[in-house]
Amino acid sequence: MGRGPSIENRKNAEDARRGKIFTKLIREITIAARNGADPAGNARLRVAMDKALSANMTKDTIERAVRRGSGADGADDMQELRYEGYGPSGVALIIDAMTDNPVRTVADVRHALSKHGGNLGTSGSVAFQFKRLGELVFDTSAAGSEDKLLEMALDAGADDVVSDGGRSTVLCAPDSFEDVKKALMGAGLAPLEADIVMRPENRVEVSGETEETLRDLLDWLDELDDVQEVYHNAALSDA
């Protein structure tokens, strides 16, 4: 009897999280579709649609977002914004947002940073510490699969493979992302994650209170409806 509410609460929390993920994916598709409704000629749209399908979004929902973004279902007033700033102990942050109200969004982001010992920086203040790369994450905990993945990834045009804790991250130029992904999936390897990201050139160690505060800040930013992605250069266990 006592277990019912907790199961229901967990389900409600999961539904809310899933809804938030869907909202962000729909925004990404909508914005990407502005450069063309055909994913064959629009790499950004193709990546966004693949992510949505991986999250079990229906094709109807995806198609509606494409139509809205391409103007087929009327004008869309979303804007893309990128904020650069600092978290606790000077951790560098890139915060990508999509919003129909930039005044609200910048106020929300500034408030989140200041509450956690950080601040907004000027454009270009931290971006030089990051590089735009294609990133595919695989589970390589099975014995011997790291070497196999490395060989296959490099053959497919990847630049590097970084392995740690049973996971391997394939890194490639954004222009090579689709080819590398197709080659690895064609060989029967299914990525846990696949996206084009802003990856830090170097990570800084954080611990204790700084790490706690940073994790709280990242959770806070993730909860903001207008924030799409947050990239940072801290060495966290789940980074």
Describe the fold and architecture.
The chain has about 240 residues and is an alpha+beta fold. The chain has helices spanning about 5-30, 45-55, 60-70, 100-115, 145-155, 175-185, 210-225, and strands spanning about 80-85, 90-100, 120, 130-140, 160-165, 165-170, 195-200, 205, 225-230, 235. The strands form 3 sheets. It has a 4-stranded antiparallel sheet with strand order 3-1-2-9, sandwiched between helices. A 4-stranded antiparallel sheet has the order 5-6-4-7. The N and C termini lie far apart (about 40 Å).
Q: How would you sum up the global shape?
A: globular
Structural class: alpha+beta
The largest sheet is: 4 strands, antiparallel
Q: What level of helicity do the residues show?
A: 40-55%
Return the string of H and E elements: HHHEEHEEHEEHEEHEE
Distance from N terminus to C terminus (CA atoms, Å) equals 39 Å
The strand count comes to 10
Uncertain parts = none
Major beta sheet, strand line-up: 3-1-2-9
Could you write a compact summary of the structure shown?
This protein is α+β, with helices and mostly antiparallel strands. The chain has helices at residues 3-32, 43-54, 59-70, 102-115, 145-155, 177-186, 208-223, and strands at residues 79-86, 92-99, 119-120, 130-139, 160-164, 167-172, 193-200, 204-205, 227-232, 234-235.
